[in-house]
Design goal:
0% strand, 87 residues, mainly alpha, 6 helices
């Protein structure tokens, strides 16, 4: 999950999602994202909330529409990755 969130662009995100698809597509991962979003929100860390919400939405779209279609669409529409938080 950390590699997915910390990928620097869509081209770097794709191999991470493809390699970790079996793990990332598990319902527990969405639950973990939701818990982390709630914790960041409670801590007042809006930047982290935005990063995690963006990645959760992308993960869900990858599951629904496919990894290639989702990431190609994001790249074509010029959507940028929100800067991740430092490790």
């Amino acid at each position: 999950m950390q590699d997915f969130v910390n990928a620097e662009d869509w081209d770097a995100t794709r191999p991470v999602v493809e390699a970790q698809q079996a793990l990332l597509f598990q319902p527990e991962v969405e639950t973990l994202f939701e818990q982390n979003i709630a914790q960041a929100r409670a801590a007042g860390n809006q930047r982290m909330v935005e990063v995690l919400e963006q990645h959760l939405a992308i993960l869900r779209e990858c599951k629904t529409n496919g990894i290639t279609a989702t990431l190609t669409s994001l790249r074509q529409h010029g959507r940028r990755i929100s800067p991740s938080m430092p490790n």
